[in-house]
Amino acid sequence: MKSLKFKTLVLAVAVLAASCQKSSNTDPIVDPNAKQTLTLQNGAVISGVYKNTILNVPEGNFTLKGYVYFEDGSEINIAAGATIKSDVSDKGALIIERGAKINAMGTAAKPIVFTSGKAVGQRNPGDWGGIIILGKAKTNRSTEPTIEGGVGKNFGGTVDNDNSGTLKYVRIEFAGIASQPNSEINGLTLGGVGSGTTIEYVQVAYGNDDAFEIFGGTVNAKYLVAYATADDDFDFDFGYSGRIQFGVALRDPSVVDPGDAGNGIECDNDGTGTNATPATRPVLSNFTFVGPNVDNTASKNHNYANRFRRATNFVLNNSVLIGWMKGGLSLESDATYNSLVGTTTTSEFKNNLLHANASTYRIGSVTVAGATADAVKTKAEGSATVTLAAAADAKLTDPFNLTSPNLLPASGSPALTGAAFAGDLTNTFFTSTTYRGAFSTTNWMAGWTNFNFTKGANGY
After folding, report:
1. What does the alpha-carbon distance between residue 265 and residue 284 come to, in Å, rounded to a whole number?
2. Global model pTM greater than 0.85
């Protein structure tokens, strides 16, 4: 009996082994590391962590739930006409990590919209997080920094032409949440993003923190719109050295961070003003900065058109700056002052039209011998910048209209002429213009942007 059981057991094992051998010879081998492609259906929820995944988001309506991560090697492809709303209770944020890509390819007729999940009339700045893109380009940090906002991901590297994908004809509305003090998610946050990335025609509206914040990297961009930002419209830090042309900042007097000052540009080399390299030096041309142009309790924290501080360098040429209540061009460290007015001449402020209701030129925390606001004015005006006595002197068509702004120069406007492209602006990235500001006779914001937000008792 014992012998029979043993023989039966041996036979069973043999049959099983043969079966397994046959299966391994005929069934396909599945690679656990193979990339999968997923295509969402209209109404789907986007959540969690995407690893080795290509996610296709077609035209339709979708929900972003919580912090959503695309890891190295993954991609999200978003079709023109897609609308992605944040979950109301589990506020969303889209994080594109180093080595991942986002391809959001809208059109002027069918922009891609990221917005609040609340009903119209109940939306407010800070209803969700925003979009974070992280790349492998250089920063001026000695170690790879962690992006702010509580997402716990690093950025930066040595690949200055790194490609994180494409954003084109994209709107980002009602974003900006703070995970902790001084650690916020902005409308669009870029960390160490490389010049292989394409960013064009992006509007951030009613952001609770900065509209566009760029930490290091070399990414270039065109046609950016910051509307009704609570904090800064454009914020540069950690060695950013890219180029941007055709930008708009339009402030809503009733929207501003109650605990911080909101500027058209805020720019630092780093948080403590060291001379770490690569130096922060954005190269900017053809911007139109429109301040709140009113001074009341609601608007008291609206600050300066430009705030260059903490050892930063910069180039800002061929631009129009009007309607800022507290200041126009502010230089706020010795190194920054010297870079424009002193002997280092690594900064430029040329061929601009500049107006502010007070302190058009100013200095802060500058101890350079002989440094004065008048010296800054002399330098600017000696570089073909025109200081305007009133905002109306720029002769823009209807710049302070918040629901239907017209920023095109009117007949006889000094913005129609006076631009020049030399030095850094001879780079092939830049489109040479004769006009100053973001517009000539064509409104490139038409069709894909949105300014028609009406504030009700519970929101927009």
Report:
1. 11
2. yes
